[in-house]
Amino acid sequence: MMTHLLFLILVICSFFFFLVTVAKDLLILLIFSKNKLLVLLIFSIVFLFSLPFICALVFIISFLLALGLICSSLFNLQS
After folding, report:
1. How does pLDDT run across 58-78, given as a tens digit for each residue?
2. Are 1 and 65 in contact (CB under 8 A)?
3. 58 exposed, middle or buried (CB, 10 Å; 0-12, 13-18, 19+)?
4. Which of 5, 20, 39, 43 could be bridged to 30 by S-S, CB 3.0 to 4.6 A?
5. Closest CA to 13 of 47, 44, 57, 52
């Protein structure tokens, strides 16, 4: 159970690290770019699609963890 929780934390942290890196790079690009509208469009698309993705990922992993906990407790009751 603990390894699943650690895996969930690792996935979330790595995804947030990716988002921070993308945001930093896009902000640098925004500062030095001539076409600021295109950079802002890319920036908004990245964050609009990444937020629902991480919410869905957390929901799926939490559901699988709960399902595994229920199955293991039912197995322990039968033994």
Report:
1. 788 778 777 777 777 777 776
2. yes
3. middle
4. 39
5. 57
